[in-house]
Amino acid sequence: MEIIPDPTLPLIDLHRHLDGSVRLSTILDLGKRYNLPLPAWEIERLRPYVQVTKPQSDVMEFIRKFQWMVGVMKDYEAVRRIAYEAVLDAKQEGIDYIEYRFSPWFMAEPHHLNPEKVVAAVIEGVRLGEMESGIKVNLIGIISRTYGVEKAWEELNSLLTFAPHLVAIDLAGDEAHFPGEWFRPHFRKVSEYGLKVTIHAGEAAGPQSIWQAIRELGAQRIGHAVSAIRDPALLDALREEKIGIEVNLTSNVQTSTVASYDQHPLRTFLKSGLLATINTDDPGISGIDLGHEYRIAAPAAGLDADQIRQCQSNALQVAFLSEAEKQLLLEKKRKLC
Question: Rounded CA gap, 270 and 312, in Å?
């Protein structure tokens, strides 16, 4: 029997990159509009250049697939459109609440846009999509560690200009070569603004990266956290401190972070009492949606129906929402059943 999400609980995605959620049709359309040198001009021929068709050697090879997603962000109208469409796509998937995260510098760099104006365009596009779709969307700003410490300050400042429109700040990028300790001053600044913190950690580095994210950067959630499985004391700390775990099953297989679904530690995380959740990461690159992760990836990772339901419940618990907003989501969902 096919395992499906519990219809009485909200369907939530807490870890999805906006710049990894661009429609192939939009890449083609913007490529034609701006006369960009796309590698192909039909969707099926373009797909291998944008989407993962076989496991990549590591996270950074996976990230290179973003080339044409950010490459068509020629101006701020293109950014607004992509943000708007991303919300409509989440609605089409049946998602009730989503947190989109984005790196303004990563999106601005290919065509030398102003990062602050990129942030403004993302906010405008998302709010328009929210009004049209009726789903709840929150935004997480990313500091991309791959650009180094100084550029991270510029990126953070561009995000903090719009702090009231964000719920959290994330640290993403090349975890293996740009360790979290370099960014402690940045997250001290984040704490001054009262924003939540979620950190990519334990994907391309070991358990110490997760410890550092919690102890020094103030992480309330961890993106990926795969290497936590190697440190029993860390599993205890994650459980006791109620740190949310943003699991991305297909992405972790595609980046070779894990060898296969059945070797993913998600099931162990749940048995250990961790607040683990199921998310998509970059659905435009992975060629999946949240339904796929629940119906296909989660069972392949060894989860049963109760564990999948627990992931849904965990997502509501660790979402960057007020308790009143969580209750409203739950009540709205149950009225539809």
Answer: 12
3-state class (DSSP) for residue 278 = strand
Helices marked H in the chain: 24-33, 43-50, 59-63, 67-71, 76-92, 104-108, 115-133, 149-160, 184-192, 207-215, 232-240, 249-254, 266-271, 283-286, 290-292, 298-300, 305-318, 323-336
Q: Which of 49, 46, 52, 50 minimizes the C-alpha distance to 22?
A: 50
Distance in angstroms (rounded) separating the CA atoms of residues 300 and 292: 11
Q: What is the pLDDT of residues 85-121, one digit of tens each?
A: 999 999 999 999 999 999 999 999 999 999 999 999 9
Answer whether 312's CB lies under 8 Å from 12's CB.
Answer: yes
> 249 near 261, Cβ under 8 Å?
yes
Q: Which two tokens stand for residue 265?
A: 């530690």
**Residue 271 phi/psi, 5° resolution?**
-65, -25
pLDDT exceeds 70 at position 41: yes
Phi/psi for 243 (5° steps) reads -80, 125
85 vs 91: CA distance, rounded Å: 10
pTM of this structure: 0.96
Question: Is the distance from CB of 60 to CB of 174 less than 8 angstroms?
Answer: yes
Domains in the chain and their CATH numbers?
12-336 (3.20.20.140)
Looking at the annotation, which residues are catalytic?
Answer: 203
